[in-house]
Amino acid sequence: MELNGVEIEDTFCEAFGAVFTRILVTATNTKWVKIASQIATGYGTSTIHCDSEAGVDVFVSPNDTPDNRPGVVLMFFKTKKDKMDQVLLNRIGQCILTCPTTACFDALNSSLAPEKDFEIKTGYKLKFFGDKFEEMSEGLYNFEAWKIPVMDGEFVVQSNFKVGKGIAGGNFLIFGETQEAALEAAEKAIDAIKDVENVIAPFPGGIARSGSKVGSQYKFLNASTNDPLCPTLRNKIEGSLLGEKDNCVYEVIIDGATEDAVKKAMKLGIQASVKIPGVNKISAGNYGGELGKFQYRLYDILT
Fold this sequence. Notes:
This protein is of the alpha+beta class. It is built from 6 helices and 17 strands. It has helices spanning 30-40, 84-96, 122-126, 179-193, 259-273, 298-302; strands spanning 2-3, 6-8, 12-26, 53-60, 71-78, 103-106, 118-120, 135-136, 145-150, 153-158, 161-176, 199-200, 212-214, 223-225, 248-256, 279-283, 294-297. Strands 1, 2, 3, 4, 5, 6, 7, 11, 12, 15, 16 and 17 form a 12-stranded mixed β-sheet that branches. Strand 1 and strand 2 (6-8) form a beta hairpin. It is elongated. It starts with a strand and ends with a helix.
């Protein structure tokens, strides 16, 4: 199969079940919305070591926020549901509460298994920072929220946040003739995905240069560099997956609330990336179908 003259490999990506939260952060203007989003989603690329996979979902108009201020929706993914409460306490408490002018609300609107959604009392726990000066917000919202006194006024936070069941690790690989071509293609893919609701691409700028494989020659590591896709190793190892003109590979990794959201983002990203000259092939990362519950064949996504 080809798309815009670019080979689409007959393979599938392999993704995993995860739990996630989706929160809305508002602030006095878009400058502080963006600052809050950058700080709150930092160190959130992979749950191999980070406390969660984190990223920006979509930016929100003041017309669509509870306090009529500009906002941003952030998502946080974790494999263990009993750890999500601590993730949100850390991220909101250290990064949103501390950021000038912000407020924070629940924004979960869709998940893979709504019947398994549950709530965590993040805002209720954060209220104790108010040292008995905190007050429940009365009459402003159709949900319970707390006003915590801070030095620029009040931090408003919703009492409970929903946790849903989602998908982590949807992906596709971009093989390029040059680093410049592959990077431009990956950037175009992320730009095409940015307005798709309920998905994030958690790696830097949405792009991963250091795809990994399971295991390592070092016994103390459970993951290591994906050597069959490293161009500097093409002539040093057996089993390289790179063609003669493949000199760079970037991976776009997508986490989402639903299968439809993940597949839509993959499709839009691939369609955008193949328009760049110098892209040789689109593939996907998998583990032979033995580890991840969710498998998305590229041909099915694109047809």
